[in-house]
Amino acid sequence: MGEVIVITSGKGGVGKTTTTANIGAGLSQLDKKVVIIDTDLGLRNLDVVMGLENLIVYNLVDVVEGKCRLKQALIRDRRYENLYLLPSAQTKDKTAVSPGQMKKLTGELREEYDYVLLDCPAGIEQGFQNAIAGADRAFVVTTPEVSAIRDADRIIGLLESNNLKKMELIVNRIRIDMVKRGDMMSVDDVTEILSIPLLGIIPDDEQIVVGTNQGMPAIGMDSFAGDAYSNICRRILGEEIPFLDLSRGQSFLSRLSNLFRKN
Amino acid sequence: MIKRSSVRIAKERLEALVASDRVHCKPKEYDLICHELYKTLSKYVEITEEHFQVSITRSAIHIQLTGEEH
Lengths: 263, 70
What we know:
Chain A contains 12 helices and 8 strands. Chain A is an alpha/beta fold. By secondary structure, chain B is α+β, with helices and mostly antiparallel strands. In chain B, 9% of the residues are buried. The A-B interface holds A 145-146, 149-150, 153-154, 156-157, 160, 181-186, 189, 193, 195 and B 5-8, 10-11, 13-15, 17-18, 21-22, 57-58.
């Protein structure tokens, strides 16, 4: 039986979709069977970030409304073994899917996939309730900004009150130079306030933009952010991986030691 | 003069916001809660307001008396 994980944040634009795409790609590279689901009705993005926008025939709403079989709506990503995307609908309104229907859908998918990743929409309305309905575990994404952390705190409270207690934090877009000069909150500052376990730290990296431009997850490229995402994936599988050392000078050494750790 | 790091300002603002979100009140009301807790406790405990700290987590309210070594 697979695990259903929701990737959420509260605030928009902190990197939920990018994180879903990269973790999905990363887990499939580690030989897991993965399906990623875009639950943002009316504003679908995950297909674009993945570069699969031209392959969409059916979507999440079609599946729920019984217009097609689940298998027909799943898009296989040819670049990765065992990675599938269930796209969202671009035209339907937000009430086209209910939490009960999502629970049923993720229940079916977990029979066949090792990981079902749900890209949650921003906000705390029905889209959020839909995305968390069938989830066993939540990854809360935030950036080191006051507004993003505040929203993450609210999301954590809401997840708790919905009995989703298995939560982990991903701190995205850290800039070590700014942290050093006291102009950006550090990962410690963030975890101190949010007090849930840390799953990963993603450095602010131009490669993410380059990847998104091309519809390619950064995890395949040689980049800081890509390495950070592959560390997250290995942690998900239970490996103990130390957090990326973000100070540039040591990057080569830490990469070298990562190389040895693989063997 | 040393420029005040913006992180300190961010953390102060964030702590106030998060605490008031957690108890569902406005930041001003949060200050009031702290003050009234202090007033109540100071009737029984010898303490000054600057050594009195309230922190609110999602499941608990902590009151800390700082600066007094016994």
